[in-house]
Amino acid sequence: MDSITNTNFDVEGLLSFGAKALGAGVESESRWEIPTDHPDPIDLAVGMPAPDKIPMESLANHFSKVLLSGNPAELEYEYGRGKVDLRELLNDPANGFTTLSQTPDNFILFNGGSGCMESFCATFLDPGDIVLVEGPSFSGTVETVLKFQGRIIEVPVSKDGMSLESIEEIVSSCKKNGEVIKAIYTINDFHNPTGITMSLHNRQMIGELALNNGIIILEDATYSGLFFDEIPPPDIYSVNQGEGVLRMGTFSKTIATGLRLGWLQGSSEVINVIRKTRSDMGNVPFIQTAVANFIQSSEYSSHVNTMRSLYKAQCKSLSDSLKFQCSDYLDFVEPKGGFFLWLKCLSVGSGELTEAASKEGLIFPDGSLFYQDPSFHDNHIRLAFSGNSVERLDEVGLRLRKAFEKLLD
Ligand SMILES: Cc1ncc(COP(=O)(O)O)c(C=O)c1O
After folding, report:
1. Rounded to the nearest whole angstrom, what is the distance from the C-alpha of residue 47 to the centroid of ligand 1?
2. What pLDDT, in 10s, does the model give residues 42-60?
3. Smallest Cα–Cα separation from 267: which of 328, 304, 217, 326?
4. Rounded distance, CA 369 to CA 329, Å?
5. Homologous superfamily in CATH for domain 11-54+302-408
6. pLDDT tens by residue, 267-307
């Protein structure tokens, strides 16, 4: 087909504003793809569960049981909120997905957290509407907002999470200018990319401020279950008793990214509205039932417990190796959960470090990829520890030190 030239067919000219905003018509290399000739690279780029710990056998067992049950509904459209068995389990605080138990109808299942985000934008965003996000933030969310022609405003982050003062300033200046802030999106537990967990005080204040100003909070709980020792502070959803907040979760990081199974928790009014804007004909029923059975069998909780200990050990191995080898070159705070170390480069530019490190066989993104406004970027890199063994992570410090030394030579 590519060999046929049709001069009337101008793909670029046909693109939506949203697709153009994502640069869909422009040939460019992804800055996420960092080439290396190193014979034994260590990939620290993507935040994904440890690949050799995906519970393949248990999942295969549950998938085949569901399919062999012969119930055709497991492979038919499920247009509504998704399988009630799984929503009931999500609603039960004993399973650790929520602390505010309401009804299964306060949940709707989507194609991962990303599916939740698309649905949220389709339901609430008009072109030009503002969404406040942490600066830096998860690039997938920022791109989804841009695709729906929303506007992103980045809010600086401190050790307590999003800056309250900045949010107050932005809200009051937008009010003056007649600009609509629709939502505050926050990854308040083990934030991607910074690893920060928002303080309870900030959660309470942001929850109150949003309610008083008619702004929806979208609380992204993607990493919330992956604490190392202590459960994070109460979520904004429970602090606000569900009012004005949507909480989004996913099995991508606790089980496997390819399940494509996530959920939104919200007031029944909001969930009903979102249900009406759904146009994907539902997602995969047999996966929902199999995951429900996996949870009910208690294999899920023992799997997540194992993963928490593993990620804690991985984080420690990487942190120790960096402290031992690179303490003159890097500054960082160890996270208390999640997948990421966010490191400030002290003596060289993060962009040049990213390139020099690839020659030493270390693949990771420059921190600038997590900002929309480059002026926010403060010379960081992000290292994901979740996909590598403790032994491999122990090698990272030395390799990175070599990269620093070559740059500073
Ligand atoms: C903070 C955050 N939210 C959402 C997602 C997307 O998750 P899912 O695979 O469920 O779409 C990611 C993936 O990296 C993430 O880091």
Report:
1. 9
2. 999 999 999 999 999 999 9
3. 217
4. 21
5. Aspartate Aminotransferase, domain 1 (3.90.1150.10)
6. 999 999 999 999 999 999 999 999 999 999 989 999 999 99
